[in-house]
């Protein structure tokens, strides 16, 4: 008799859990952005959240939990309840965190991969007073001045930091890295002439390029951008840095153990969201390409991530950077 009651209770609990997953989502969903409000990752997350609202049928709330190169917000999601109501939008920095920090507060296996969202190039920009009008002149200027050149970035683990590492390695230079707490103060000092150059996401640099507040020397993608502000700007590859290819990508994640039916629902909603014409138009205006290949699947996203993590582990080791 006891066995029968126990079995019945177990079946009821299982059915309730299955029903809950079938009804997902029944309330608003929170997307954690581990960076500051108004930054490129925040803008992307808000665009995606708006596009996800209709296919998920619930409001999407953005929570900015910044600090330590994105690791604080990521750890928050890794520890969250795995019910699909707390998600994470993170960029390329997720693939470098374990190479830059001894203990970022989570393991990659603490997360479920839901799909790659987009990718975008960075731009190599400089203060207007630089005596270089194209990349060839800038390259010579860097060779002449070397460590006296100040190369800004938005902080350890930021996209601009990673692009700077690749630039430094490719040029075999010894420029002085100047880390800031975010893109805004770095860009302010660049425009004010306190900093020489910066490798920054096109999303952030386009307004300054259009207003001629900075000089632009190249884009980090292998193809030129079609948007007006960057259409005439050469790629760094064609400007002389052969094979230079850097893109900032963003992905969507959930806590490990999120039920597969919920993962599948979120992935299906993401696929619909990334076909939203308004989202595509807004992203394109910022030189961002929405993903539309096998990396949009959880499995493809994870495979892409593993390759990126291995690639950046090598870059960081070769740069002589020790985990903090």
TrEMBL record:
Protein name (database record): ABC transporter substrate-binding protein
Family membership: Belongs to the UPF0065 (bug) family.
Organism: Advenella kashmirensis W13003
Keywords: Signal
Keyword Signal assigned: yes
UniProt key word Signal: yes
Signal peptide: 1-22
Gene3D superfamilies in UniProt: Bordetella uptake gene, domain 1 (3.40.190.150), Periplasmic binding protein-like II (3.40.190.10)
Xref: Pfam families: TctC (PF03401)
InterPro entries given in the database record: BUG (IPR005064), Bug_dom1 (IPR042100)
């Amino acid at each position: 008799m006891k066995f029968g009651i126990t079995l019945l209770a177990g079946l009821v609990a299982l059915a309730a859990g299955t029903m809950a997953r079938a009804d997902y989502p029944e309330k608003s969903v929170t997307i954690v952005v581990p960076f500051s409000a108004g930054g490129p990752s925040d803008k992307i997350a808000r665009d995606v959240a708006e596009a996800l609202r209709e296919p998920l049928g619930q409001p999407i709330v953005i929570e900015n939990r910044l600090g330590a190169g994105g690791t604080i917000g990521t750890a928050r999601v890794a520890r969250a309840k795995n019910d699909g109501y707390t998600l994470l939008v993170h960029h390329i920095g997720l693939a470098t965190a374990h190479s830059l920090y001894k203990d970022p507060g989570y393991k990659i296996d603490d997360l479920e991969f839901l799909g790659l969202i987009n990718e975008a190039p960075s731009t190599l920009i400089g203060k207007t007073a630089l005596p270089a009008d194209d990349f060839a002149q800038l390259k010579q200027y860097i060779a002449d001045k070397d460590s006296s050149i100040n190369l800004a970035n938005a902080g350890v683990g930021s996209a601009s930091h990673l692009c700077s590492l690749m630039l430094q390695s490719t040029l075999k230079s010894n420029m002085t890295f100047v880390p800031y707490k975010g893109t805004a103060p770095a860009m302010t000092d660049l425009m004010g002439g306190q900093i020489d150059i910066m490798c920054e996401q096109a999303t952030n640099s386009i307004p300054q390029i259009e207003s001629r507040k900075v000089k632009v020397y190249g884009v980090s993608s292998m193809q030129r951008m079609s948007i007006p502000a960057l259409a005439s700007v050469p790629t760094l590859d064609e400007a002389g840095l052969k094979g230079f290819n850097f893109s900032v990508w963003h992905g969507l994640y959930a806590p490990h153990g999120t039920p597969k039916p919920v993962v599948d629902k979120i992935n299906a909603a993401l696929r619909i969201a990334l076909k939203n014409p308004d989202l595509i138009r807004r992203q394109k205006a910022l030189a961002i390409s929405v993903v539309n290949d096998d990396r949009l699947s959880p499995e493809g996203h994870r495979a892409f991530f593993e390759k990126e993590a291995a690639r950046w582990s090598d870059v960081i080791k070769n740069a002589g950077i020790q985990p903090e």
